[in-house]
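Session log. Operator J.P. requested a structure for one protein chain; no other inputs attached. Running the standard single-chain path with token output.
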Amino acid sequence: MIQEDMNMRKERIEALAIEPFATMVHNDFWVNNMMFKYEQYSNETNNLKNEEIPIAIKFIDFQITIYESPVRDLLFFLFTSSEDGLIDKYFDHLINLYHMKFITVLKTFDCDITPFSYKHFQEEINTIAPREFMHILYLLNPISADSENMEDISNFDKDSLVVYSGGDVYKNKVRCLIKSYGARGWLQ
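Structure written below.
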């Protein structure tokens, strides 16, 4: 039943991909699908002694990629992988930062950036965000599950995703998701 629903959603979402933003998206873009390489760093001026800092990143787990807007991955990552309070304080700043980096990359490939103005990007976010809500909400449960309440992985199947795993992290992330979506008029 869950697999049928996911397949139906995937077909419907892919049919809605709109140029110029449409591209291949990860569709499960959260911190556990990233691998970081760290390097030792020391800076006496900033009181940092033998701190590890990330110097490279690799993305993994591409089995459910789809043709859609990169906004899906951006929203999914922000709402599933950010620390408490980050979205409330810095959502607009993070969106702006993403857009600036996106434009910088397009310019390095001599792409016409006209169709990718910040205004068009905001319109893309407002179009995609309501459709991404259920995807985020559905996967917040297993992503932020309290390890104390998780069942043994040997018993895990596709229906295990809907079993409430509880915990404060999950509750806070759902609260943030609903609050942010409500404030932006994205709940439909």
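Operator note: The two ends are 24 Å apart (CA to CA).
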